[in-house]
Amino acid sequence: MPPEADEPVKLNVGKLIPIELENGLRVYLAPVKEYPKFTISVNIELPGYDKESRLAEKKILNKAYSSRLSEKYPNGEIDSITSYYGAMSNANMFGGTIKGMKEDIDPLLEVYVDALFHPIISDAYIIEKQKDQVEKEGKETIKLPLRKKEFSVGKVIDSLLFGSEEKVVEIKNKAIANFKGLTINDVENFKNDRILAYNSLIVVVGDFTEKECKELMMRYFGNWKSGKPYVKDSPLNKKTSIIKRRKIVVVNAPNAVQSDISFRWHLGDAHTYFKDDIKLEVLNEIFGASQLSYLYKNLREDKGLCYFIRSSVGTSAVGGRGSVFTTVRNDQTAYAVENIILEMLRLRNGKVSTSDLKIAKNSLIGSYTRSLNAISPIPYITFAMQKDVYHLPDDYLQSKVDKYYEVSVDDMMEMSQKYIDPFKSVIYIKGKVSELKGTLEKFGDVLYFEENGTRID
């Protein structure tokens, strides 16, 4: 008998230390011991950015940032200094990123901070835009013909899942940037009203202690204007599925030799970061997210129906979404649909094996821990930006590995019965209708369409 495996060593990954400065600026430190480089990500929320009414100021300020000239460095020194240190520095209205060697952090931050707070706003560029506006106003406006409404299979699927949405269309005059009378002072005021500490958070990744990090942030960002406290609205929204039984939507591809098959269903209450998000991730791994999944082993390895098949059963802002996608030969379409439904029922009606569960958890733990590295610190930055919005605990990243280990066979049974739904799903197939018609009706009501949206009887 082979020896029993040792208990897994507790992984100390994902540590994120919250720090708050007196001006309201939020900082998160991800300490990485003995790592010679650093990454600093500055993230500025701009409420109403897409609905901005002061478009002229916005355009001029964006141009100023893209020019990479600042008060202290007006002659291209930003690029030359960054290149000299083999680093990266990018300042813009949304913040930016600084990367380099820890020993060079002070000169790099000096450059970045001046670029963020004191970009050179060109009076010549304002005058140029004013002249362009005068020329445009002198030309006759040509009305373009309205575009013909195109067929959208996505809207058909949404209507079957959620019903037709009646949207109240508000007629609004399109905002136009008005550069007349615009001054550098106007643009400066615009910047100072929006680039604020309360709107912002910084993620620092590198070999820093909490004290070192706080001193560094105070030195370079401590005088940042606070502004009014800003709390981002929750992106979560409830969406209710109305579908009662399975529907099939088929779009004709008359020259196709293969059919694209896509299942889609609504989970209901699986909102982003909900309490069972880790369990749902493990379920998806077992179902169809890897080459060791049920779907892959059945349709690819056992029956040779496809080269690729994947599921995506996960959280979303509107309550979660389940989907499966593959491509098979036209004459195997119905058989593939049957086997996908079979695997969904298999998960719902029977317990997964201890071995399958262990493999899925180990795979996810490995992928997760590898993602938490200093070279590409995206998970740290993403979490820091979402922590307050979703009310997540400080140790969320650190405790994630333990949550993977805690998932049980019974959890998978419970999650499958709740979130794997072959009955209230929409199956979308794009393939040769002449070969498919009559083979799919056993799965549910079928709607056939030409590529332009014309119904096929």
From TrEMBL:
A Pfam family of this chain: Peptidase_M16_C
GO molecular function: metal ion binding
InterPro entries xrefs: Metalloenz_LuxS/M16, Peptidase_M16, Peptidase_M16_C
Residue ranges of domain Peptidase M16 C-terminal in the record: 182-364
Protein name listed in UniProt: Peptidase M16 C-terminal domain-containing protein
UniProt organism field: Polaribacter atrinae
